Amino acid sequence: MSNPKFSKRRSSAVKPLVLVLSVILVISCVVGGTLAWLTAQTDAVVNTFTTSGIDITLAEKEGGENHEFKMIPGHTIAKDPKVTVEAGSEDCFLFVKLEESSNFKSFMTYKVADGWTQVPNVDGVYYREVTAINADQGFDVLKDNQVSVSDTVTKEAMSKLTSNTYPTLTVTAYATQLWKSNTEKFDVNEAWIAAQPANP
Questions:
Q1: Whether 195 contacts 174, CB under 8 Å
Q2: CA-CA distance, 146 to 125, in Å (whole number)?
Q3: Considering the entire predicted model, what is its pTM?
Q4: Is 76 exposed, middle or buried (0-12, 13-18, 19+ CB in 10 A)?
Q5: Which of 6, 45, 86, 118 would bridge 55 by S-S if both were Cys, CB 3.0 to 4.6 A apart?
């Protein structure tokens, strides 16, 4: 049988203990709520990735708008196609394609300017590697900016020509990026394939 006096005494002892614990808990909450932490944060760094490109032009001053030239046996004709890699372009392979009419060699000769190398196993296509700089870079296509009329051409041979059969030399320029990755260049033959527009 429980002793009422003992229960009363025990109850009286517990109440102050609970009160003290409650006060400690409240103080802890107040102190914890106002505790200041040392913190730091940097400014944001925004990384923006812009575009790149290669821009080229091909121009000739000689021959007027139609680029027509009179053939005189044994004479040279000024012809100055120049390819320009424009400022701001990336490192590139620069190509020139020289297409001769089927009768061209019967009447005319020329040499390619210094600095061009024939693309392996591709007739009439030459290339050079161009390193990017902040200025236009121009490259002559023909040595001494001229073509020559053969000294064996006769008046009779020329009299058989018509506007549809005059000898022609067509120059086209192409470019493609030089580097496949940060450390590896494209092979020149695969670069030449990539540089040409897709066949329709």
A1: yes
A2: 18
A3: 0.78
A4: middle
A5: 86
- Which domains does the chain carry? 56-195 (2.60.40)
What does the buried/exposed string (b/e) look like for 118-138 if buried means 16 or more CB atoms within 10 Å of the residue's CB? Answer: ebeeeeebbbbebebeeeebe
What are residue 32's phi and psi, to 5 degrees?
-60, -35
Query: Is the CB of residue 152 less than 8 Å from the CB of residue 73?
Result: yes
Separation CA 83–CA 174 (nearest Å): 9
Q: What DSSP character marks residue 187?
A: P
pLDDT grade, residue 200 (50/70/90)? Answer: very low
Question: pLDDT for 79-110, tens place per residue?
Answer: 999 999 999 999 999 999 999 999 999 999 99
> 109: helix, coil or strand?
strand
Share of the chain residues as helix, strand and coil, in percent rounded to the nearest 5: 25, 25, 50
**Cα torsion 117, 122, 123, 125: sign:** negative
pLDDT category, 158, cuts 50, 70, 90? Answer: very high
Expressed in angstroms, the distance from the first to the final Cα of the chain is: 108
| Structural contact between residues 84 and 59, judged by C-beta atoms closer than 8 angstroms | yes
**What are the phi and psi torsion angles at 72 (to 5°)?**
-125, 120
Place of tokens 């012809």: 79
